[in-house]
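Technical annex, item 7. During the second reporting period the consortium partners agreed on a shared format for inverse folding records so that results from different sites could be compared directly. Each record opens with the tokenized structure and is followed by the designed sequence. A conforming record, contributed by the partner at site C, is shown below for reference.
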């Protein structure tokens, strides 16, 4: 068992950002998404992450989304704010904005677009730490950032108090296990998995919680899954994970001939939430596109199969 007493545990959905057809934040729909997630019993919310389309939003739209989420949460659970930017100075600006708008923690990747050395990644996190008062979770997402946070680097930054947690979307399961072992005695450090399809396995090896994009669609399912894991009922956890994995097939609904990976994933989550009546419009940010009638029908069929419609 962990000796860390992690600060962040359970289900922390990376909340979607509903938009209208002009690309503006649909604050009414966003408030309903927050209510949908809180009612299910989630442990926190991650605003302005990959599922929140942070990379597509202007600073003003990011600020509107975060203000709306923090206001709707009203202190019921922690709100982590993605400060996902290309370089250190830009991350610091977003961190300052997040703090001003009431975020409880920051989520920070390595620099990207620029070509960086591990030494420069280390310096990046240390500089952000020196300028930010809020807790910092490192976000390891090499598919988007194009550099990998090594387990040794994460452990060192954690041990020195530079970072307070890890949101792992790396696909490096042996590396994640090394981190879990390596931070065992770091007080308060949180290890969260972003792999919605293997949450039960990650919890078994010692993760503290999950940040699954699919939890926007079925937060109750993920809350049940995490509770089963926390009570060590691995048979029940496996059954719930398998049901959620069937639901995860919605990300295959988009035609790969005209839709990239972000459209397939984010578009599916938004399409499902619109079908469930949580948001008014499933429009994603440009240059992504909305789902066609045929793609929407595929999403509906999966929702019906798993009992959500």
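Designed sequence (site C submission):
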């Amino acid at each position: 068992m962990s000796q860390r007493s992690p600060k962040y545990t359970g289900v922390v959905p990376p909340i979607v950002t509903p938009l209208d057809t002009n690309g503006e934040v649909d604050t009414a729909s966003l408030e309903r998404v927050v209510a949908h997630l809180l009612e299910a019993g989630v442990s926190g919310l991650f605003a302005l992450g990959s599922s929140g389309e942070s990379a597509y939003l202007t600073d003003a739209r990011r600020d509107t989304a975060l203000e709306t989420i923090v206001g709707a949460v009203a202190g019921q659970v922690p709100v982590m704010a993605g400060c996902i930017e290309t370089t250190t100075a830009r991350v610091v600006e977003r961190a300052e904005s997040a703090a001003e708008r009431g975020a409880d923690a920051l989520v920070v990747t390595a620099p990207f677009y620029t070509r960086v050395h591990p030494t420069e990644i280390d310096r990046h996190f240390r500089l952000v730490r020196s300028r930010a008062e809020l807790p910092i979770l490192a976000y390891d997402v090499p598919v988007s950032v194009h550099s990998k946070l090594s387990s040794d680097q994460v452990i060192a930054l954690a041990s020195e108090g530079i970072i307070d947690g890890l949101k792992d979307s790396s696909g490096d399961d042996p590396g994640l296990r090394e981190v879990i072992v390596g931070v065992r005695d770091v007080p308060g450090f949180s290890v969260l998995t972003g792999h919605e399809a293997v949450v039960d396995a990650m919890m078994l090896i010692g993760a503290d919680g999950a940040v699954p994009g699919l939890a926007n669609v079925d937060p109750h399912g993920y809350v049940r899954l995490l509770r089963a894991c926390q009570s060590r009922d691995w048979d029940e956890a496996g059954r719930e994970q398998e049901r959620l994995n069937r639901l995860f097939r919605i990300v295959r609904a988009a035609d790969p001939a005209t839709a990239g990976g972000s459209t397939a994933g984010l578009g599916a989550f938004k399409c499902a939430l619109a079908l469930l009546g949580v948001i008014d419009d499933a429009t994603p940010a440009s240059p992504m596109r909305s789902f066609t009638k045929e793609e929407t029908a595929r999403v509906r069929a999966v929702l019906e199969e798993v009992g959500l419609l």
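The chain has one domain: 10-233. The chain has a mean pLDDT of 97. All partners now use this format for quarterly exchanges.
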